[in-house]
Design goal:
Number of helices: 16
CATH architecture of the largest domain: 3-Layer(aba) Sandwich
CATH superfamily of the largest domain: Aldehyde Dehydrogenase, Chain A, domain 1
Number of domains: 2
Largest sheet: 7 strands, mixed
Distance between the termini: 94 Å
CATH topology of the largest domain: Aldehyde Dehydrogenase, Chain A, domain 1
Strand content: 15-25%
Structural class: alpha/beta
Length: 502
């Protein structure tokens, strides 16, 4: 039996267990709910049915928001040390079920096992990290003045809504929910309808770890009903959202009537800038990894490759050979580097850019084809002879597709890197330290890496500028979103107070 066959057998066991429990139910106030009907989730690998999913509507969201509101007082009052223990227990539970989580995520999203096995453990790391911060979450500052002893503290904002996307949904759910719980907030989570399975596993792990009922509620459904109801509900004080920029704009409008705080991690068209003095072998590895791993379906992918003209031709030839050699296959095969797109509709969107590229005058150097047969597979694609004004260089394709654009000098590289509506990440490759400092200072991006791929350090701020979002995750920045600042001033002595109407 091959390793793929063994993994398929294990995955079937995990899927059978899920189906025996009635599929993916909503979880509200510590109890299962069938919702207002159901919908099916199918695998992008072959279109096979995976599970029936409870469909939430406005009434389900209302019940979940009220459950979160009812649970908030006790969860807020719980000491940070106790919350830390529960969050560490959740991390332990994730580790214990990491294989199940990874296998089901592969079937539900099409992401390769080599990445999803790590994503599950990253989720555990998120809970441990923010659990460790729970004890200090309320800490403030002492800001004395001549007449007052000024003190600040922080308090959790209240019940919050978390809306997560279909790409690496498990890890991104932990990235949003762990700091909310550590801060003392309660949660209503709406997962993406295209990949709902692991969200249910996650809330089960949390309750088994000792999380009180109602602190974390999960309601599945679609944006037009469950999502809209969540963003408009008066008991929900903030919305944390990961997804498309246009959807973020809709959420902001929907939350305006109730003055909701919003945190958005949105789209990107991220550049990697390769100067001719860089370590070109490492730059090549990083450029390939950051667009073709995770099927190109991640917001931080380096989907634009800006290469200095002096090295452009040689670099592109080496790049093309590597892209043509990428291993496409079943996501549960350990050898697979690229699996299918999340769904046929997204496969069609990605493939639509092949004609667009040709119409605009670019060259399809590698790929540019849909793969026949079952599953939403797309050949890894490389566009060359492109200019920065083409749609393939301006629009987020969100697939295993890379556009190469040459630049002449430092000023040209910066201008082209910034000439998009997005500003999430950027990657700079040069061995000139002063150039790296100049370039990163002028790039319009929330996060940048020099001579590196995207390596997350949890205490650092994560987020973008322009159409790539607002707000920051990571470390204390997460608590700035999920908590309110309070100030108290204590008078020092009998300072004079102005008398009116005496």
């Amino acid at each position: 039996m091959s390793e793929l066959e063994r993994n398929l057998a294990k995955a079937k066991t995990y899927l059978d267990a899920l189906q025996s429990r009635g599929g993916v139910k909503n979880r509200i106030g510590g109890a299962d709910s069938d919702g207002a009907g159901s919908f099916a989730t199918t695998s992008p690998v072959d279109g096979a049915h995976l599970a029936n999913v409870a469909r939430g509507d406005e009434a389900e969201i209302d019940r979940a928001a009220k459950a979160a509101k009812d649970a908030f007082r006790d969860w807020k009052a719980m000491g940070g040390k106790e919350r830390k223990k529960i969050l560490h227990n959740i991390a332990d539970g994730i580790v214990a079920r990491a294989e199940e989580i990874a296998f089901l995520e592969c079937l539900d999203t099409g992401q390769a096992l080599r990445f999803m096995s790590k994503a599950a453990l990253r989720g555990a790391e998120n809970f441990r990290y923010f659990g460790d911060l729970a004890e200090s979450a309320r800490d403030g500052k002492h800001l004395p003045s001549p007449t007052l002893m000024n003190m600040t503290t922080r308090v959790p904002i209240g019940p919050v809504g978390v809306i997560t996307p279909w790409n690496t949904p498990f890890m991104l759910s932990t990235w949003k929910i762990a700091p909310a719980l550590a801060a003392g907030c309660t949660v209503v989570h709406k997962p993406a309808e295209l990949s709902p399975i692991t969200a249910r596993l996650l809330v089960d792990v949390a309750e088994e770890a000792g999380l009180p009922p109602g602190v974390w509620n999960t309601v599945n459904g679609f944006g037009e009903d469950a999502g809209r109801a969540l963003t408009e509900h008066p008991d929900i004080k903030a919305i944390a959202f990961v997804g498309e920029s246009q959807t973020g704009s809709h959420i902001m409008r929907q939350g305006a009537a109730t003055l909701k705080r919003v945190h958005f991690e949105l789209g990107g068209k991220n550049p990697v800038l390769v100067f001719d003095d860089a370590d070109l072998d490492r730059a090549l590895d990083a450029a390939i990894f950051m667009i073709y791993s995770l099927n190109g379906e991640r917001c931080t992918s380096s989907s634009r490759l800006l290469v200095q003209s002096t090295i452009h031709d040689d670099f592109v030839e080496k790049l093309a050979a590597r892209v043509a050699n990428l291993n496409i296959g079943h996501p549960l095969d350990p050898a697979t580097e690229i699996g299918p797109m999340i769904a046929e509709v997204h496969q069609n969107k990605v493939c639509s850019y092949f004609d667009i590229a040709k119409q605009d005058g670019a060259t399809i150097k590698v790929g540019g084809e849909k793969i026949d047969g079952p599953g939403a597979y797309v050949k890894p694609t490389l566009f060359t002879n492109a200019t920065n004004d083409m749609r393939i260089a301006q629009e987020e394709i969100f697939g295993p597709v890379l556009t190469v654009v040459p630049f002449s000098d430092e000023a040209d590289a910066i201008a082209k890197a910034n000439d998009v509506q997005y500003g999430l990440t950027a990657y700079v490759w040069t061995n000139d330290l002063t150039r790296a400092l100049r370039v990163t200072d002028q790039l319009e991006a929330g996060m940048m890496w020099v001579n590196s791929e995207n390596v997350r350090h949890l205490p650092t701020p994560f987020g973008g500028v322009k159409a790539s979002g607002m707000g920051r995750d990571g470390g204390d920045w997460s608590f700035e979103f999920y908590m309110e600042q309070k100030h108290v001033g204590f008078a020092l002595g009998q300072h004079k107070i102005a008398r009116l109407g005496a």
